[in-house]
Amino acid sequence: KKMATAGIGNNNFNNFNNLLKSQQIQQETSIWSKILLTASTTQYSLPTKPLLILGDRNSGKSTFVEYLIKGSYSDNVVNGIALNYNFFDVLDDDNEIISRVDTWQLEGEEEHSKFLQYALNPTSISSAAVLICLDFSQPWHLVSSLNKWVSLLETHMNFLRSSIKRSAFEELQNSNILRYQNYKEPDLSAATSRRLNILNQKVQKGDNNSNNNDNISDNDNEVNKNEDIKQNQLPNEQLLPDGVLTKNFGIPIIIVCLKTDAIRILESEYRFNDGRLEYIQQHLRKICLQIGAGLVYCSVKANRNCDLIRNYVEHLLFGLPFKYTTKLGIESSNDNSDNKDSIFVPFGWDSPQKVAIDFNNQRVCVDPQQSYEEVIKLPSSLQQMIEEKIEAKEEQEFLDNLEKELQSMRSQEPQQRASTFSTVNSTLGLGASTSLAPSKSQNTINSSISASNQSPLRTTTTAKQTGTPTTRPLTTAESTAKLSIQDSSSVAGFFNSLLAKGNSAKRTSNTVTAATSKVSREESIARLTQPTSKRQ
């Protein structure tokens, strides 16, 4: 009994241990299950903000977006259709991904503006930015292209303005005003140029006409445009200078002039001197002040300012530190630098006074009110290369007109056909290669065939008796039938030339050869049928 009792006790103890182990395993399994369930249901999404990219076709924006994504230049970029989406990651100093920028690229068609709602909508407008890309290889179209995209953006923003609360949109506009009033250059004194210090000093003195370039000590402190405005103070539109934020869209805008490596070609082939480049720069800066935009010259191929634009976008969207200072093209004569193709003017640094000073320093234009197109014109050498546009008719309309002309030709006398052929050709816009009139080779073929028809085999009985080859005159019906056949041959030749222009010459040669061989064969048969005395 004792042994039995001990066995029962041992069994209970083992069962109890097994029970504890199973509960422990179940508890551990439930913990991992909870962790996996939490990981599968929790969305670890990065903070993302949209970047809308506008610009004409072939302006270089697709190549630029490719650089933003991959960080390198590629010449095998395929243009998209309508609205293209992509993204690039924002990294910290340890190359860890901390956020993401969604790029929405609208192709160069204004008809696709209805797709802007996917990039800029009432939900995303408060965290978005806009890039407007211009093609600097064609500087005579810069302002017209910029005005076109600004107008399109203004239309869309007015639509969004009616879709959100008035107070929310006014808050966005106030943030734009504060961005201008509170701007300060990064503390990079080594990168501050001599020209910027001179310009700042002139603004402080209120001198818009002075060209004096006396020595001025280096000073990297940006002139405060409104000393009454302090950090974080509510904006006051009355303190804005005239010509600044006349169109306040409430979102950061960057004007990017791409393909600036073409400046060398413009200088060498089209005589674009420094004065013209200065005029273009100050005119673009004036527009940027009006719409609240920064200005950047960029060349993806030469790797000019690509990283600067990326850092500027990250600074505007996420508030990350900005590491670049203003660059204004050709510096003073004492500086051994030429930045005319890598200009950078951030929004908030510039002012109408600075633009006026630069305008007075150039000699290309005297009147500030003169239009841009009157100063920067299309070169005459390129103007001559522009061909007149010819609008092609619809296919059915073309064939209907052709049918009418052919019907009128059939009712005319043979003498009038030559003039009618030329009239039809000019009416239908046909050249010599596609003319309805019989060509010289066709006339040669017809005469050869006519000669073969007059061979001794086809002479009348009277000719056989007298030995004189004579032909019977054609009746009116036969003449009309022959002319109809010639008309059909001409029309067939016309359509054949449309179907295979490249083989027209070869076809004509083969036709002439065939006709000639036919004539030679018939003449040989005629000689064989003649009496022996005649052949001798």
Task: Explain how this protein is built.
With 536 residues, the chain is α/β, with parallel strands linked by helices. Helices cover 48% and strands 11% of the residues. The chain contains 18 helices and eight strands. Strands 2-3-1-4-5-6-8-7 form an eight-stranded mixed β-sheet, sandwiched between helices. β2 and β3 (97-106) form a beta hairpin. α7 packs antiparallel against α9 and α12 (395-410) runs antiparallel to α13. The longest helix has 40 residues, at 2-41. The chain is extended. The protein starts with a helix and ends with a helix.
Descriptive tags:
alpha/beta; extended
Radius of gyration, in angstroms, nearest whole number: 42 Å
Helix content: 40-55%
Range of strand content: 5-15%
* Overall mean pLDDT: 74
Describe the global form: extended
Task: State the order of secondary-structure elements, H for helix, E for strand.
Answer: HEHEEEHHHEHHEHEEHHHHHHHHHH
What is the number of helical segments per DSSP (H or I, 4+ residues)?
A: 18
Calculate the terminal CA-CA distance, rounded to whole Å.
154 Å
* SS class: alpha/beta
Q: How would you write the strand order of the largest sheet?
A: 2-3-1-4-5-6-8-7
Structure summary, number of beta strands? 8
Main sheet specs:
8 strands, mixed
| Uncertain segments | 1-8, 208-232, 331-337, 431-471, 512-519, 532-536
SSE inventory with pairings:
Elements (H helix, E strand, L loop, with lengths): L1 H40 L6 E8 L5 H10 L12 E9 L5 E10 L22 E7 L6 H20 L4 H16 L12 H12 L47 E6 L4 H7 L4 H18 L1 E5 L8 H13 L8 E4 L7 E8 L6 H10 L10 H4 L4 H6 L9 H16 L6 H12 L11 H14 L7 H6 L9 H24 L4 H26 L2 H4 L1
Parallel strand pairs: 1-3, 1-4, 4-5, 5-6
Antiparallel strand pairs: 2-3, 6-8, 7-8
Helix pairs in contact: 7-9, 12-13, 14-17
